[in-house]
Write a structure and sequence with these properties.
The chain is mainly alpha-helical and 114 residues long. It has helices at 7-20, 32-71, 76-85, 92-101, 103-113. The protein has one domain: Orthogonal Bundle (c-terminal domain of poly(a) binding protein). 12% of the residues are buried.
Length: 114
């Protein structure tokens, strides 16, 4: 009995990988073995960096809040501690936006917690 291979599924799997590799440079876009490795590596990077992006943004927000708080004579840690003590529940994303784009609103928050 001849060996049965599922060519339809194999081709579909390869087509999917080659579609992901579209736009890559050189043989990474059109040679199956190289494209497969490139796409696997790209998927690893994208998985890792979806998590790293969250850390990067949190760090950016903290920097912006710190800069805004220091303009009004407070450090970041003191400011955040006072927010918690006064039961003001604004997250860092919102606070950073206020510090950057609405300084008068941010100043009002700083005055309230002082």
């Amino acid at each position: 009995m001849p060996r049965s291979v599922n060519s339809v599924a194999s081709r579909a799997r390869r087509k999917k990988v080659m579609k992901h590799a579209k736009g890559y440079f050189g043989r990474r876009k059109n040679v199956w073995t190289i494209a497969k490795n490139a796409v696997d590596k790209a998927m690893q990077y994208s998985y890792r960096d979806r998590r790293a992006k969250k850390r990067n943004f949190r760090s950016l927000w903290i920097t912006r809040i710190n800069a805004g708080a220091r303009q009004h004579g407070m450090s970041y840690s003191k400011f955040m501690g006072q927010l918690k003590a006064n039961d003001i529940e604004l997250n860092r994303k919102v606070l950073a936006d206020l510090a950057m784009n609405h300084p008068e609103a941010f100043k009002a928050i700083v005055e309230k917690v002082k």
